[in-house]
TrEMBL record:
Protein name in the entry: RNA helicase
Family label: Belongs to the helicase family. SKI2 subfamily.
GO biological process terms held by the UniProt record: maturation of 5.8S rRNA; RNA catabolic process
Domain Helicase ATP-binding: 139-295
Organism annotation: Crocodylus porosus (Saltwater crocodile)
GO MF term set: ATP binding; hydrolase activity; RNA binding; RNA helicase activity
Locations listed in the record: Nucleus
Lineage: superkingdom: Eukaryota
């Protein structure tokens, strides 16, 4: 039956000739069928509900032949699934623990759980404070030489568990690796670990200190590289600690974590530190399945310092407590805040991108920061979602001063000591000169565009309490242990690279978790600035929602494929099959099978008398509904409908959730909408319609959209802005409307007029004819109308159309059809879960590597491939092609350096420099290489857009880097561009990797 419902039985009518002149024509109420005569009332829509309109017609033999096609119920749809072969052989057991945390362990299915043994002898490390229950449980796992995932809130004290594992490894003369996602966090952890253990080394892309140490702190990329190279260090490692493991869901770099965990040997034990994640157990199951060892999950949602969450509505004067320290959501306060926002008017509204309107945003930040200081709620971290906003907000604080004279002297001393390593010229950089006056007043800035030396200095000053207000981007919330008493969000929306959206509850939890210093504050304070209204549902989800789950971001890269081809013990197929990405799909199988079986059971229980005939009738109606939508698309075009949207025009309004029925047009306006991909302005037409609304929904108009009055409910007429595409029908009737619609009596009088019209036309309110009335001459519309006439002819001729049981059997058929669609979708989901994902993409990538000469047809890696294996900082294919094509041979070192900047620079810049021929020439050659790779990729059936691929290599900094390579000082090149100094500073280290490859 699922197949029967999915068939396109009626394609034979696609090219049918025009109906006879007496046939009825579809009208603007696309959901309603046409009438025979020009302006008389339309019959009720057969596409929308079972109609009873009679129509005399003959069914010819051709139609009989088409409808005679046998429609059979689909046999059992759930295929036999050999779950034993696919399902990871893992079991989970709860472990009894004290109140305050949960403890589970994932075990290989053939192992019995043996309780953890209490420590005998002295602890590897003693702590001067009483450990929390989750810390004691995690340390017990480490003492028993078993892997553990510790999932707890930011600042809860997860590092204690990592320190204990390091102490244990050092005591037993074993090596231990501590890995983190970013260099800044690695540097901080190195300093902390060195102070504690001394025998500690650091390995990041920029710095290597004491690489023979027993405890090595490194970025995950370095660990991955060591594993691919078969480093001797790995033979001596007993423990690997992954800090901030939830970073594995990062779309770009998260795959590095998965690769690393898969490549690590089974005899290594792990400590995973994570923010709260709802699927921590699933991750532990994957580790157990992957490395054939138990993995414990210690989870706590206990927060040592409770938080209070406030909303500050833009344009308002005060804070509104919306979530108290007990975690209770106060909806009345939330609604009050939204009402304040609404009353503040247009100045507080955001534009289409969600940015702050008018001049309220900056003054609001100033107002809140000043209030925080007056109430002694400092230090405060102010999170903004762009580097420029951070600096702009900080500069608005110039009238405020939070430091004493003594503190100013300390700031100046620390700052001068830090910048002493810079040259005299670099000390005069605008960024260096401008930041000191702010720092002396206790105001700091922290984002990726700062020079590293300034960023580290600001971190030190903040940790010492010499910065009271720190303006930072969200990267500051990642792992670096810098808590504050208060956290302020300057916006509830952010740009994620595609469009502006509400921040997720997981992002909010991560950043707000910086509020409240353990042992220092009785509570943390979180303030969310809101500049456009949100519903209580959205607000509650944001403020009290769960953390984001740890979902795999695994994807193939050429560097990964080449490295796996080079290593004998492992291949790319193995990597795909063992990935967390694949594991999550395998884990979904039982649920999908159960879903399919349940749907099949529902499907088979629905019995429809004379089912074949009912199905045919149902399909006719579905085709009519589909064609009605096509009619709507024509009448919604502004050039056709706008001339008829005069005040008083009756229109029917319907969206996906609500049917308002008939309303009256009051006015319409044209606005501009930003297209998400191009950024171009698209005209947007909004019609103001007087509609019968529920009084309850109007009470909460500050936070919720208006809802239609329920049948029989005495609602209230209200003017509601409606997008043109929500007009389900346009009537030929116009009503008189009072000039002043503010008095409720005037609005209610219009409702009476609408009801009178409906009584006068019991068969349906007459609609505008799209051809005769609206003058639409489009041939496509005429074809659609012809198809509608043909299908209506068959519908009215069908014996079921006048059957008294039509309503009942039609609903049964509709329900069965929906179940059949659900079964098909579930089967596709099941098929996807049972196959090794991305295998087709792997085949395509291998094809590209063979055609470009990186590997042989038997997957033996060539010289080109070996070079590409060494490149992980940029596009390995293009760089290798450029080297082997001799593109660099005729370039000077300065030209080569400038060209390589295209691979590094990813920031947005308003400047596109006009390049000289000595730079434009190499750029063209590089683009030709890139076009060839894009062409080969497309031929290999990879989904690639040549234009987007070429645009990913940005020449914005070529002239800047060329000038720098020719000996210009840093201060000079900073004046050549609007790019932040920190982004310029991070560019040169990348070249080292490329030059080494070129040298060899």
């Amino acid at each position: 039956m699922a197949d029967a419902f999915g068939d396109e039985l009626f394609s034979v009518f696609e090219e049918e000739a025009a109906a006879p002149s007496g046939a009825k024509r579809a009208r603007t109420g696309a959901a309603e069928p046409a009438s025979k005569a020009g302006k008389r009332a339309n019959a009720k829509s057969p596409a929308a509900s079972p109609g009873k309109t009679k129509r005399e017609a003959e069914v010819d033999s051709t139609e009989d032949a088409v409808f005679a096609k046998k429609v059979k119920l689909e046999d059992g749809v759930a295929e036999e699934v050999n779950l034993a072969d696919l399902m990871p052989k893992v079991k989970v057991q709860a472990v009894e623990t004290v109140e305050g945390c949960t403890h589970e362990v994932a075990l290989p299915a053939d192992e019995d759980f043996v309780g953890l043994k209490p420590r005998s002898g002295k602890a590897a490390k003693e702590y001067p404070f009483i450990l929390d229950s989750f810390q004691r449980e995690a340390i017990l796992c480490v003492d028993n030489k078993q892997s553990v995932l510790v999932s707890a809130h930011t600042s809860a004290g997860k590092t204690v568990c990592a320190e204990y594992a390091i102490a244990l490894a050092l005591r037993e003369k074993q090596r231990v690796i501590f890995t983190s996602p970013i260099k800044a966090l690695s540097n901080q952890k190195y300093r902390e670990m060195y102070e504690e253990f001394q025998d500690v080394g650091l390995m990041t892309g920029d710095v290597t200190i004491n690489p023979t140490a027993s405890c090595l702190v490194m970025t995950t990329e370095i660990l991955r590289s060591m594993l691919y190279r078969g480093s001797e260090v790995m033979r001596e490692v007993a423990w690997v600690i992954f800090d901030e493991i939830h970073y594995m869901r990062d779309s770009e770099r998260g795959v590095v974590w998965e690769e690393t965990i898969i490549l690590l040997p089974d005899n290594v034990h792990y400590v995973f530190l994570s923010a709260t994640i709802p699927n921590a157990r699933q991750f532990a199951e994957w580790i157990c399945h992957l490395h054939k060892q138990p993995c414990h999950v210690i989870y706590t949602d206990y927060r040592p310092t409770p938080l209070q969450h406030y909303i500050f509505p833009a344009g308002g004067d005060g804070l509104h407590l919306v979530v108290d320290e007990n975690g209770d959501f106060r909806e009345d306060n939330f609604n009050t805040a939204m009402q304040v926002l609404r009353d503040a008017g247009d100045l507080a509204k955001g534009d289409q991108k969600g940015r702050k309107g008018g001049t309220k945003g900056p003054s609001n930040v100033f107002k809140i920061v000043k209030m925080i200081m007056e109430r002694n709620f400092q230090p405060v971290i102010i999170f903004s979602f762009s580097k420029k906003d951070c600096e702009a907000y900080a500069l608005q604080m110039t009238k405020l001063d939070f430091n004493t004279d003594e503190e100013k002297k300390m700031v100046e001393e620390v700052f001068n000591n830090a910048v002493d390593c810079l040259s005299d010229e670099d000390k005069k950089l605008p960024q260096v000169e401008h930041v000191l006056p702010l720092l002396k007043r206790g105001i700091g800035i922290h984002h990726g565009g700062l020079l590293p030396i300034l960023k580290e200095t600001i971190e030190i000053l903040f940790s010492e309490g010499l910065i009271k207000a720190l303006f930072a981007t969200e990267t500051f919330a990642m792992g670096i242990n810098m808590p504050a008493r208060t956290v302020l969000f300057t916006s509830a929306r952010k740009f994620d690279g595609k469009d502006f959206r509400w921040i997720s509850s997981g992002e909010y939890i991560q950043m707000s978790g910086r509020a409240g210093r353990r042992g220092m504050d009785d509570r943390g304070i979180v303030i969310l600035m809101v500049d456009e209204k949100m519903s209580p549902t959205v607000g509650k989800q944001l403020l009290k929602g769960s953390a984001d789950p740890l979902n795999s971001a695994f994807h193939l890269t050429y560097n990964m494929v080449l490295n796996l081809l080079r290593v004998e013990e492992i291949n790319p197929e193995y990597m795909l099959e063992k990935s967390f990405y694949q594991f999550q799909h395998y884990r979904a199988i039982p649920g999908v099978v159960e879903k399919v079986n349940k749907l099949e059971d529902q499907y088979n229980k629905i019995e429809i008398p004379n089912e074949d005939s009912v199905v045919i009738y149902y399909k006719i109606r579905q085709q009519l509904a589909k064609l009605s939508k096509e009619i709507e698309e024509y009448i919604h075009k502004p050039k056709y409908c706008l001339p008829f949207l005069q005040p008083g025009r009756l229109v029917k309004v319907k969206n996906e959730d609500d049917d308002f029925g008939w309303g009256v047009v009051v006015n319409f306006s044209k606005k501009s909408n930003v297209k998400p991909n191009s950024g171009e302005l698209d005209p947007l037409y909004v019609v103001e319609v007087l509609l019968h609304c529920s009084k309850e929904s109007l009470k909460n108009s500050a936070t919720e959209a208006a809802k239609p009055a329920k049948p029989g409910e005495k609602g209230e007429m209200q003017v509601v802005p409606v997008l043109v595409h929500l007009l389900a029908a346009i009537s030929s009737v116009r009503l008189y409307i009072p000039k002043d619609l503010r008095p409720i009596d005037n609005r209610q009088s219009v409702l009476k007029s609408i009801q009178e019209v409906q009584k006068r036309f019991p068969d349906g309110v007459p609609l505008l004819d799209p051809i005769d009335d609206m003058g639409i001459k489009d041939q496509g519309l005429k074809k659609v109308i012809q198809k509608i006439e043909a299908f209506e002819h068959r519908m009215y001729s069908h014996p079921l159309h006048n059957d008294p049981n039509l309503e009942t059997v039609y609903k049964l058929c509709e329900r069965k059809a929906q179940i059949a669609v659900d079964i098909k979708a579930a089967k596709r989901e099941l098929k996807k879960a049972r196959t090794v994902l991305q295998m087709d993409e792997l085949k395509c990538r291998k094809r590209v590597l063979r055609r470009l000469g990186f590997a042989t047809s038997s997957d033996v890696i060539e010289l080109k491939g070996r070079v590409a294996c060494e490149i992980s900082s940029a596009d390995e294919l293009l760089l290798t092609e450029m080297m082997f094509n001799g593109l660099f041979n005729d370039l000077s070192a300065e030209q080569a350096t400038a060209l390589l900047s295209c691979f590094v620079f990813q920031e947005n810049s308003s400047e596109m420099p006009k390049l000289t021929e000595q730079l434009a020439g190499p750029l063209r050659q590089m683009q030709e290489c890139a076009k060839r790779i894009a062409k080969v990729s497309a031929e290999a059936k990879l989904d690639i857009d040549e234009e987007n691929y070429l645009n990913s290599f940005r020449p914005n900094l070529m002239d800047v880097v060329h000038t720098w390579a020719n000996g210009a000082n840093f201060a000079h090149i900073c004046k050549m561009t609007d790019v932040f100094e920190g982004m310029l500073f991070s560019t040169p280290p990348f070249f080292q990797e490329i030059y080494l490859c070129d040298y060899f």
